Amino acid sequence: MNELVQFRKIIERIQEKSGLLQNQIAEQVFDITPNNLNNKIRRNSVDIKPIAKWAMNHRVNLHWLLTGEGDQSGEDTEGEALSKDVDLEVMTGVIKGVEKYLQDQKKTLDPDKKARLISLLYDHFTKTGEAVNQKTVVSYLRLVA
Crossing angle, helix 7-18 and helix 34-43, to 10 degrees? Predict the structure, then answer.
């Protein structure tokens, strides 16, 4: 199954930016045991909140950290941190909604399409102030999946 977010790759990018060993990442970033982190990597079980928090604290572009695409630094062309403006609750809700639909429908989505869709849904929910809901997520997904 093609995944937008590959947890193993996220860990590798954290290692690249921080120089931390995997067991240190487990303890310092996720507050879990190294064995638990290995299990999460094996299952590709991504917990977005500690990743986003780490990105914000280390001024790393969250999009790059999740996908490997774009600029590594958490600064845009005007020098403002990109990660600090992410509403984790909305982002988590959008990702969970997209993944739930795809899993329920036994469908996959090209990683680039999935990334654009998540970005579009995130923008919709943050700009309208509407709470993340599965009905809206499904409406968008039916257009692309």
Answer: 130
pLDDT tens digits for range 89-143 = 899 999 999 999 999 999 888 877 888 788 889 888 988 899 999 999 998 888 7
The residue ranges of DSSP E strands in 6-139, in sequence order, are none
Nearest to 102 by CA among 85, 114, 86: 114
User: Strand ranges (DSSP E) for the chain?
Assistant: none
Contact status, residue 96 vs residue 121, Cβ threshold 8 Å: no
Beta-carbon neighbour count of residue 30 at 10 Å? 19
Q: Phi and psi of 75, rounded to 5°? A: -125, 140
Q: In CATH, what class is 7-84?
A: mainly alpha
Residues of the chain with CATH 1.10.260.40: 7-84
From the list 50, 76, 96, the residue with the least C-alpha distance to 11 is 50
| Residue type for position 65 | L
Identify the sign of the CA torsion 14, 66, 55, 8: negative
Could you tell me the sign of the dihedral formed by the alpha carbons of 100, 106, 111, 113, in that order?
Answer: negative
